[in-house]
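Async update (no meeting this week)

Hi team, since we skipped the sync, here's where things stand on the single-chain job. The sequence we agreed to prioritize is pasted below, unchanged from the tracker. I ran it this morning and attached the output directly underneath so nobody has to dig for it. Comments welcome in thread, and please keep replies under the output.
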Amino acid sequence: MARLPLAEAVVREAVALTSARPYGLQEQQGRFVRALALDGFVIQWDESPSMGEVPLLRAALPGEVDLPDVHDEVHQLLNYFGFVVSRGHLDQAIEAHTRGDWAAANGQTRTFIESLFDSIADRVDAAEAAEATSSENRRAMLGRKGFLSAERHEWSTDGKNYINGLFKMLHTEGSHPGLSDEDRSTFRLHLALITARTFLRRLKNGG
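Output:
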């Protein structure tokens, strides 16, 4: 029998101990399920002739995405550059998501991404970033300097680009209560983590 890493074995044992749907009956179980979702996993219930419904751990995303590693690498890169404010917003977004506070998670996710690009702009050109009057102007500066690629449609002067689209999507439900759900909040946080890793890697590699 193949040996499992200790962390995976613990998670699978916890999954085996989860009670049948719905998850909301136990707050600790709910937090566990949401933490799994953040790492790209879900609990599915299969019918067993002898045991009834059996909980099984399933990947919700392709293995290539590897969200746990993305999460770890983003934190490592934030620490490497000393982006303390950005890291704080990300940690708050994750904590809010884990406790099921979707509105707060949405708000902190957007603030994290905005803070991240502000910090990157300051690292690319501190003097020009300080003169910019808004976060949007600092992102435009990154576009002019080529850190954000026009060829890859990351940035453009007409606003029809990935970065502007990302901010519009993150802003639609913001921190207003009652305007989001778990799926949309999880999607926002996943997208923010993958985006952050891409541009933090680029910054580390010299832009």
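Quick observations from my side:
The beta strands are 41-48, 52-59.
Residues 6-59 form one domain.
Reply here if anything looks off.
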